[in-house]
Amino acid sequence: MQIRPKRPTVTVTLPGPTLGVVGGGQLGRMLAEAAAPLGVEVVVLDPTPDCPASPVARAQVEGDFDDADAVHELASRVDVLTFEIELADPDLLEEVQDEYDVPVHPSPDTLRMIQDKLVQKDTLGEAGIPIPEFRRVDDAADLRDAVEEFGSVMLKARTGGYDGRGNVPVTSLDEIEDALEYIGHAPAMAETFVDFVREVSVIGVKGNEEVRAFPLGENVHEEEILRETVVPARTSDEVTERARDVAYDVLDQLDGRGVYGIELFETESGEILVNEIAPRPHNSGHWTIEGALTSQFEQHARAVLGWPLGSTDLRAPTVSANVLGDVDESREAELRGVEEVLAADGVSMHWYGKREVRPLRKMGHITAVGDSFTSTDDLLASARDHVDSLTFDQ
């Protein structure tokens, strides 16, 4: 789907404007890397001194994501604001948008809706978008009712969870108290457990009246953490088309420009159900740096500035694989085995600049790109072999 774009909202002249980003982790780092060739400078806000994005950003404002003074300082120094983490405060973003006349994209209302998983699912359900059955959980009685109605459920804290944190399966009534304890008795929702064939995702982009989507990716998880993304997804053309249609329907419900990660379940019958939405570049879109004509990070910069979007076409079959902390306890990060990765044709290394490695913490990723004759199964095996060659063990 391609719609003729309007004139950009920020005039395209070089050097370009300054983009403010709430969050300076690996997403902010890769966003700043992608913005630089466009002549766009980036200022990030992050509580971690010398955060991962700081070596490539123009500057860092040090402060918590909900620190009013820090957010005001950031807004005063930039032309457009965005965020790379859902912990950004939508009320503060709304406030500085009005005070400094600085556009915020995606919109604070979209962030507010997505931050609360129950509100997110209510919004999608009311729009007729296919989602798993769910119900609100405020106490043990609500969770008991959900288990009795659905059988096995996934209990999800409504706010704050990521990478599986804040989520816990509940398969029997005996597990109710432990599950509520696990999420700290936070407001929650219970979603019927989906026996899916695979999880897939679409990285969608909303520009200035221009909407595009990258090819469908297949996500491989272990212990609730994304390990690899395979593109194109190993599924049928019919499922691929259905997933893209659902993704475009989701994008219709979201206000504001930018990149959105849309996670989907494919069921045994080929049905597509929306799992969750991220209002930012997404881990399952990291493959686009080498594997697509325009990366998700460059697209996000273009989109939030109101500039024309780039092509989302696939260069070649691609697999990205996360480099996770293989340690039992936190320690200073020193990655070994990098030479083997760098020596491999078609394999790229991305290091996120985190000084401390923790168990299963995302420290980087590698990307393996094939050609028109390379099978995704072979690429996946290659990517796994190269990740396995990397270690933080001393």
Automatic annotation (TrEMBL):
Record EC number: 6.3.4.18
One family name in Pfam for this protein: ATP-grasp
Residue span, ATP-grasp domain: 121-305
Pathway(s): Purine metabolism; IMP biosynthesis via de novo pathway; 5-amino-1-(5-phospho-D-ribosyl)imidazole-4-carboxylate from 5-amino-1-(5-phospho-D-ribosyl)imidazole (N5-CAIR route): step 1/2
GO terms for biological process, alphabetical: 'de novo' IMP biosynthetic process
InterPro entries per UniProt: ATP-grasp (IPR011761), ATP-grasp_carboxylate-amine (IPR003135), ATP_grasp_subdomain_1 (IPR013815), PreATP-grasp_dom_sf (IPR016185), PurK (IPR005875), PurK_C (IPR040686), PurT/PurK_preATP-grasp (IPR054350), Rudment_hybrid_motif (IPR011054)
Molecular function terms, GO-annotated: 5-(carboxyamino)imidazole ribonucleotide synthase activity; ATP binding; metal ion binding; phosphoribosylaminoimidazole carboxylase activity
Keyword Ligase found: yes
Record's catalysed reaction(s): 5-amino-1-(5-phospho-beta-D-ribosyl)imidazole + hydrogencarbonate + ATP = 5-carboxyamino-1-(5-phospho-D-ribosyl)imidazole + ADP + phosphate + 2 H(+)
Residues engaged in binding ATP: 117, 156, 191-194, 199, 221, 275-276
Superkingdom assignment: Archaea
SUPFAM superfamilies with a match to the protein in the record: Glutathione synthetase ATP-binding domain-like (SSF56059), PreATP-grasp domain (SSF52440), Rudiment single hybrid motif (SSF51246)
Entry keyword set: ATP-binding, Ligase, Magnesium, Nucleotide-binding, Purine biosynthesis
Subunit structure: Homodimer.
UniProt xrefs under HAMAP family: PurK
Sequence similarity: Belongs to the PurK/PurT family.
Role noted for this protein: Catalyzes the ATP-dependent conversion of 5-aminoimidazole ribonucleotide (AIR) and HCO(3)- to N5-carboxyaminoimidazole ribonucleotide (N5-CAIR).
Matching NCBIfam families: PRK06019.1-5 (NF004679), purK (TIGR01161)
Protein name per its UniProtKB record: N5-carboxyaminoimidazole ribonucleotide synthase
Source organism of the structure: Halogranum rubrum
